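Below sits the subject:
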Amino acid sequence: MTAPDWTALLARVWDKEPALLPAAAPADPAHLHRTVVAACEPFRAGTVFRTLPQVRLHTPLGWLGAPGRLLPDAADPDPAAYRARLRAEPPGSGTDSGFLLSVRQPLHTDWELWSAVRDALADLWRRVGLPCLPVEAELTEADAFARTAGLAVPSEHAVLTWVLDGTLEAELHEPDGELRVLRAGAGELLYWPGGTRWRERHLDGCTTLRISVPRARRLATGAVKDLLAEALQSRHPYDGTVPCLPHPPPADRPLGPAGPVAAVGEAVRLLAGGAELPTALRTRWAAWWSAAGLDPAPDPRAGVPVHPGQRLRVLREVVRVPDGPGRRIWAVNGHAFPIGGAAGERIAEQLRPGRELTVAELCRAVGADEHNAAVLALLRRLHTLRGIDLADGGRTDG
């Protein structure tokens, strides 16, 4: 019997009400555990700030800033072995040994996992629409732990949680005041819309993959603000000083803002009024589109030489966003770059997903010499971004 399409079931209730659906996760518990262990490696020496992935070990006493050996490592072959170790040496107090290990934004460290989750999300977005901001991924391994932070304020995200092992019980307080309690087991998906207050209980050695989809208006404002800050930092570095003004201010003349602050304000005005910000937003949007909202994206793979005799296979659709006369932004697997001229469009027409042809055949189809440096450079870039594979002498690169 064919399993029901979870994306069709979820589309019926999207943005309307919580749901519990049958849905196999895009990866198995063993694969997720390997990703969790790799993400925890830098945190064994202490807390690491301002980096992704972000690892937190939550206990009945609060989250531990330096969990050290309480994090899983290579000696814990699976989530069950890790849970058994923490039960023998509980991170809490007394006999209360519950815990929740949270790893936020780990997918970009594992290309295979990132790609599988991206494909699953892309199927959903075709039914409900593609979010205009990136989503956030979280992996959890937990045992007998209640997470209550979601009760404080209505969620600014719609939440999808695949349960891979154990049981996840969610107490959902909807905007209209209705209370629902849903219990998901392995092979099921929990969903609730934005605006929901929630409390969870992770039971029976619960392992989950969660995707949080931005829904609150202020998150779009924050995304633009962050982009402005990045652009300003690259063109107007700030040395971090905070000047002090005379006090009390002189009475005979107005006192304007401090020099560095005024300079930053002027730079923001110029940036917001020029063409650079819209292009940056389009570029970021194209990258998110090609990643089905997963950000950050995996690093490019190592480049290889490209020659006319090689056979290429197109793996991914190239997202193309217009960016002014004769210009488009191309994006593949979360990475975006500009392409100009009509030749780029002719090449894109040949790069249909699943198609196979030689480099020389591609060049002839677009009216270019088979040694054309620009075409070969473009194919090298598409290869590093895993948009195409190249085969040489019967051997396909990995």
